Amino acid sequence: MKRSLARSAMLLLAAPLMLLFLGVQGAPSGVSASGKASSAAAVAQARAKFIKVMSAHAPAVSASHGWVSPNTQGHGSVEGAANGSITSAQSINWSGYVASESGTSMVSRVSGDWTIPKIQCLPAPYENQDAFTVNWVGIDGFNNQTVEQLGTGAQCYAGVEYYFVFYEMYPAGTVEEGTTACISSNVDCPQPGDRISASVSVTAAGSGENNYNLALTDHTRPAESFSVMKQCATATCMDTSAEWIVERPAVVPPPPAPVQVLPLVDFTRTAFRNAGVASGGRATSILGFKDGPVYDISMIDDTDSYYLACVGQSAPPGTLLAITQANACPTVAPSPLGGFNESWDSSF
Questions:
Q1: Model-level pTM?
Q2: CA 116 and chain centroid, separation
Q3: Does the residue 341 lie in any domain?
Q4: Domain for residue 342, yes or no?
């Protein structure tokens, strides 16, 4: 996945997609999407699309794409945020929390639990529109261009629902994990309601390298669980932030093409719990992080006009939320134990 994208001049979501957006905002009635694709070829196409859009790395993103990091620009008072505070920020592809280092300490562990949300594919005549949502925890990506993360994803592809587990470790692309039956046939996959625990832990490997242990447990379907160990140079993976995020993929074509962002699929309420971070030898929840500012990030559409997902919502609002609307998406703090809710507001 990509570093969080606060603003974009991208052209993909222009008038035709805005019409689609206006047609499905609120709580749309979804198509009846099967949990099983009609053929192995269709499954392979869907999986290939997910891997492709999730593997467009942050190093390819630059100012030439009309892109600015959320920690340097946004509607919230982001710059100069005090340690221990909750500060608002906005992104076109992230929603959730970020704990950002402001001193010499580095993040050594991030963890969190969540339940896979149920998705609803877009209604006719847009049932073949690709749409995504991804829950993940990770290190880096907010202050720099690396990503060390893992989580669960949900995808509507040609009117069929797909659920999966994955990880991404810079500089390699996204890797789908889980059972062979799930990856090849879209059966015996993770399902809505599965209880997930995930973590990324960093330890010294010597010779200027760090080890990253990425571990995910599906407590409901243990066969989907996995753990991998990867390495990254200390000069490359800086470990300067921890994230708990709901994301829609952002595709980064070669310059000068603009950044392209995919639709956020309609999902039921999802909740992160036990969101923890270790930094400077001290382990805390998000709320207890004192080594730098904590950002409450809301997801907005590419025109900087509407909210797509907000932290703290227990249910969809049932109406379009304009950024100019007072208190439409207020800044909130996570629970003392590291918990927060997210709800779908709109696709575009």
A1: 0.86
A2: 13
A3: no
A4: no
Range scoring the smallest mean pLDDT among 67-81, 105-119, 148-162, 245-259 = 67-81
Q: Is residue 7 part of a domain?
A: no
pLDDT score, position 4: 56
In SS3 terms, the chain reads as CCCCCCECCCCCCCHHHHHHHHHHCCCCCCCCCCCCCCCHHHHHHHHHHHHHHHCCCHHHCCHHHCCECCCCCCCCCCCCCCCCCEEEEEECCEEEEEEECCCCCCEEEEEEEEECCCEECCCCCCCCCCEEEEEEEEECCCCCCCCEEEEEEEEEECCEEEEEEEEEECCCCEEEECCHHHHHHCCCCCCCCCEEEEEEEEEEEECCEEEEEEEEEECCCHHHCEEEEEEEECCCCCCCEEEEEEECCEECCCCCCCCEECCECEECCEEEEEEEEEECCEEEECCCCCCCCEEEEEEECCCCCEEEEEECCCCCCCCCCECCCCCCCCCCCCCCCCCEEEEECCCC
Least confident range from 18-22, 40-44, 85-89, 165-169: namely: 18-22
**Residue range(s) defining the domain that contains residue 284:** 15-22+32-335
In angstroms, the CA 166 to CA 111 distance is: 15
- Looking at per-residue confidence, does 25 or 66 come out higher? 66
CATH of the domain at 240: 2.60.120.700
Could you give the number of structural domains in the chain? 1
Phi-psi region of 316 (alpha: psi -120 to 50; beta: other; left: phi over 0): beta
Asked if residue 267 is part of any domain, the answer here is yes
Residue of 311, 316, 315, 299 lying closest to 335 (CA atoms) = 311
